[in-house]
Each structure stands twice: as C-alpha cells, then as structure tokens.
Amino acid sequence: MFPWMKRGIVISSALLTLGMFVPVDFVREAHADEPQRALDENNDNPLIYKVDQDNYDLFHEVLPAKTDHYIHRNITSADVLQQYFVRQAYEQSLNKFGTAISQRISKPFEEEILPRLTTGLIDTAKTFSEEDWKHVKLSVQPAAGLGEKIVHLYNDESGADYFRFHVRRDQPPKQGYFFNFHYHTYLDQYERHHELGTIYWGKDMPPQWNGEDRV
Predict the structure, then answer these.
(1) DSSP-derived secondary structure letter, 136
(2) Which residues of 166-193 are buried (b: 16+ CB within 10 A; e: fewer)?
(3) Is the pLDDT score of 165 beyond 70?
(4) Which residues pair with 151 in a beta bridge?
(5) Which terminal residue of the chain has fewer beta carbons within 10 Å of its beta carbon, N or C?
(6) What pTM does this model have?
(7) Rounded to whole angstroms, how far apart are CA atoms 108 and 27?
(8) What are phi and psi of 199, to 5 degrees?
(9) At what angle do helices 114-125 and 78-108 cross, to 10 degrees?
C-alpha cells in the first residue's frame, strides 16, 4: 500500500461529504515534502486564509470549534483532493468485495490495480477547471450483486460523470473466473475501456459483491 495511505489521514466530516474546506493540518501533512507549494506561484499570497465561520450554518456541527483557518477547495488544493479520492476508491473497493473476496485479492489489488487507478484518476482530475473543483463529488455506494460499479466521480450540479471505476467478472472457457478492473472517463465520452488489470479468482464461482457467504 502507498506510504501516504498509512499516514492515518484525518479528515473532518466536511471533507467526508466533500464540502468546501479541507483542514489545514491535513494539507500541511500531505505537502510536507513540498513546503514551497504553500505559496501561490503567481502572486506569492498564502493559499490558507480565514473564513467567516458565521456564514456557514453547519460550521460548528462538522468542524472543530477552535479551528478557524482553512484552505479553500479549488484547483490549488487538487493534490489533497486527489489523494482523498484515491483513498475512498480503495475503501469502497474493499466494501464492494466483501470479506470473502477481499481476503483473496486485496494484496494484488493494492499492488497492481491501485497504482494504475491512481494514475488514471489523476490524469482525469488534472483537466478540471476551477469551477469543476467546486462541484466534484464521489459516489458513496458500490453496486452489489453482479453490478460493475465501484465508484464514480461526478459533478453534483449537473449530475454528469467525470470518471467511472468498475470491475467486471470474466469467465474465459475452461480458465476459471477473473476480475477485470477498468475505468471510463469523460475525456473520451466513456467510449473506451481503460484496462487497469485482471486478477485471477479460481475455478470456483466467486460470491456476489458485498457478500460474506463464501471463503
């Protein structure tokens, strides 16, 4: 698993709902190796600034009352949000797999699929405009049963998808069962299957997604 995934990411409830702010402590940790990025390259103004907490009805409900410095959620905080998206895609994948499947494929998934997913997601996200970043959200419910959907990145204002991360069950003749991971992106109007890799399950039929009935 990537080192940054083991940092014990601390994200407030505001970020968990992909609200407008990211806690500064998390931003500083995520950019610890690149301190120069704390300044805007164009105008040397700090990216971190105070907000008027009285303007936000749920401010004290979702954020620590004594925390009064935040980074605005826009293109300048893209790296932090991209890391959050990848982390959530990983966690929702395990949720979709269920215990039985996770026990058998979690290691190759982390080592082979996740790095390629990260590249694909970042390649898509780096095309977002300032306005896109204000409305981007992540779906929260993977498809169960035999459905392919793991997670979608979408615009909460227009409802349009940006990125779709899926897994398909394949059964080539006399070869057993495989899980094919791929994604679709708005950059090519979802016409291509961007292959991320295939993980072999075995000769026996795997359980349905989000099921724990078989080992």
Answers:
(1) E
(2) bbeeeeeeeeebbbbbbbbbbeeeeeee
(3) yes
(4) 165
(5) C
(6) 0.66
(7) 30
(8) -115, 130
(9) 160
